[in-house]
Design a protein that fits this description.
By secondary structure, this protein is mostly beta strands. The chain has one helix spanning 28-37, and strands at residues 2-3, 8-12, 20-24, 40-48, 59-66. The protein is elongated.
Length: 69
């Protein structure tokens, strides 16, 4: 699962740990391409809204199988 978007960078931890964390966002097409280049066949790639207990960012949920891309 990955957060949907087009940016990356270092930000304050949104969960309040006091640490600075690196985050990267991806598009569904970028994740499909990366999985294929790594030798996975992408079986599904759903995008969903954040749940009530999650940071307010859409999620990309790829399902892939190792093998021929």
């Amino acid at each position: 699962m990955a957060k949907e978007g087009t940016g990356d960078g270092v930000v304050d931890d949104l969960l309040g740990s006091g640490l600075r964390v690196y985050g990267a966002e991806f598009t569904a097409d970028e994740l499909r391409a990366a999985a294929g280049e790594a030798g996975f066949r992408v079986d599904d790639c759903a995008v969903r809204e954040a749940r009530d207990d999650e940071i307010r960012t859409r999620r990309i949920c790829p399902v892939a199988t190792r093998g021929t891309a």
